[in-house]
Amino acid sequence: MFKKKSKSDSKPKESWKVLIVDDEPDIHTVTKITLGRFEFDDKKIEFLSAYSGSQAKEILAAHSDIALVFLDVVMESDDAGLLVAQYIREELKNTFVRIILRTGQPGQAPEREIIVNYDINDYKEKTNLSSDKLFTVMYTGLRGYRDILSIENARAMLENHRVGLEKVIDSTASLFRIRSLDKFANGLLVQLASLLHVDKNALCGETSNCAVKKVNDNFEIIAATGVLQPTVGVTPDLPENIIALFNRACAEQKSILNAGAFVGYFPTTNTGINLIYLERVGQIDALDRQLLELFSHNISVAFENLALDKEIFDTQSEIIDTLGEVVESRSKEAANHVRRVSHLSKALAEWAGLAEDEANQLFMASPMHDVGKVAIPDSVLLKPGKLDASEWEIMKSHVSIGHDIFARSKRPVLKAAAIVAGQHHEKYNGKGYPNGLAGEDIHIFGRIVALVDVFDALSHSRCYKEAWPLEEVVALLNEEKGEHFDPKLVDLFIENIDKVTHIMDSYPD
Ligand code: C2E
Ligand code: SIN
Ligand code: SIN
Ligand code: FE
Ligand code: FE
């Protein structure tokens, strides 16, 4: 984005290009001989020759870096040279090249208007081609060209600054609208990659670009592209070279550019340090560095704001987790059951296309699906074998008890918890309890948790049953597709079974 794409590409490197336009070959010869050893700013002259107006136009169109043109007026027509001048300024829009008109007839000066309009820099009579005169014309012409180029380069630099600043402001503005830390960090990776000229292909390839949060001496991944993407949300084994760079940035308390890699260091006052690692960073110039610094400052502020949001979210989650654990510990289910149900429900919600805040509500509410079990006596809850009919009636009441605990709350998360607790044993075919709801009359939260709860209950052992192998659990999901479970959800769940098992493995009993 900030790559210099300016007229500086056309700046002469070893020589100045000078175009001689004249239908008389002798004029070419004399000019070249006279100026053969001319140098300006330690650079020699490279002559180009055109013998007509039309040939001149072709050469000018092909060479945007011609410094100076000696231009005959009368060639194939009386005004052929003037048409070339017009072509240069108006069609090629080349305002850099210096134009020296040369007339064959003494006293036949071009009109003032033409000199002004086509920015003609000088005109000379061809009869007056002494080497002194030519030298002076050449010298002032090239000096003018050089000065114009340097002004143009400065202008292009300013333009790059402006474009760069706008990009930083736009990036920050769009990032500030994102209210979740992981999405924010993801956007940040993309925006930084663009500021740092990271090879676009690198973003999806075998790279380890990531955003992490420093927790004690560990780095927790909050966003990633490339090979680290599947590790988001779990504690990964980061490659040692990346850990070393993170530690160095923390020790030096600043961002680092190191052999094509960028390590961004974003401290916040309350919630610790966020770091970014980007590979295959392109050429970084002074301007990029300044922009990066500005961007980084804004990013730290944004992290700070997000951290406050996250603090509230974490507090809520912790309360809910604790509640869930109370339940699960009473029924001797491992505490990780609620975590698995929580993560799997959120994941399934996302696969089903639910909005982000709904998926987050479900993440917090789903661990409470069995909260009503606190009211079930141990003799029933912990019975090692099959329940009899009256025990089963008692057991089923965990659903309405759970629903009633949350039903009066107006908080979205607790309303979601009431739905989940009250509907997680309804079945898609209408044969579930407590109300025999069918199909989409069961809230999507209820349908999701029904599937996830059974999947997890079957995959692990209970006081009354052994754990089932994955194939058999999947077979049951398929058998119950459209019966116990929403068929669309079964398909989504099985399509994503690799991610499911990854979550399961992250929270073992
Ligand atoms: P849970 O252990 O959390 O099981 C949740 C759901 O997973 C069950 O809901 C059921 O749909 C499914 N599930 C669990 N184990 C099996 C199984 O071996 N086969 C099949 N096909 N499905 C299974 P459900 O049936 O409404 O039970 C609700 C709760 O009642 C269970 O929660 C558990 O706490 C209790 N429960 C159910 N059956 C028994 C039992 O035979 N003995 C004891 N002690 N408790 C039971
Ligand atoms: C049971 O009757 O024990 C199980 C009921 C069910 O899975 O819906
Ligand atoms: C929805 O109800 O939002 C679609 C998800 C589903 O029913 O499987
Ligand atoms: Fe239940
Ligand atoms: Fe459960």
From TrEMBL:
Residues the record lists as 4-aspartylphosphate modifications: 72
Superkingdom field: Bacteria
Entries under PROSITE patterns matching the protein: HD_GYP, RESPONSE_REGULATORY
SMART domains: HDc, REC
Transmembrane regions listed in the UniProt entry: none
InterPro entries for the chain: CheY-like_superfamily, Cyclic_di-GMP/3'3'-cGAMP_PDE, DUF3369, HD/PDEase_dom, HD_GYP_dom, Sig_transdc_resp-reg_receiver
Pfam assignment, any one: DUF3369
Keyword annotations from UniProtKB, A to Z: Phosphoprotein
Start and end residues of each Response regulatory domain: 17-141
Coiled coil: none
Positions of the HD-GYP domain: 312-509
Protein's recorded name: Phosphodiesterase
Organism: Pseudoalteromonas aurantia 208
